[in-house]
Amino acid sequence: MSCGEPHETPCSEVLEKVYLYLDGEAGDDDHDHIRIHLDECAPCLRQYGLEQAVKALVARSCAEAAPIDLRDRVLLRIKQVRIEIDQVEFRAD
Q: How far apart are CA 27 and CA 5, in angstroms?
């Protein structure tokens, strides 16, 4: 996407890094360049708003806890794998 206007940071670069920006993981320089770009570029700001909405929806949808029986099965399998690893390491010594 490009709005056709010249920017210090190209639209494609901003949209490529928008998730890092949303997650607060963009470096200081990237963060500042993206913020400036979004302030002056309406198409990218709209895309950013869409990405932000999708991220919020996913966060709300994934907030519920796993069923207790699933949790128990996962913990049991982790214990089994740990035992298998310990046995392999013991045989190697």
A: 25
Buried b (16+ CB within 10 A) or exposed e, 12-41: eebbebbeebbeeebeeebeebbeebbeeb
Q: Are residues 55 and 75 in the same domain?
A: no
36-67, pLDDT tens digit by residue?
888 888 888 888 888 888 888 777 777 777 78
- In terms of pTM, does the model score above 0.70? no
Rounded Cα distance, 42 and 4, in Å? 11
Pair (79, 58) in one structural domain: no
Domain that holds residue 84: 66-93
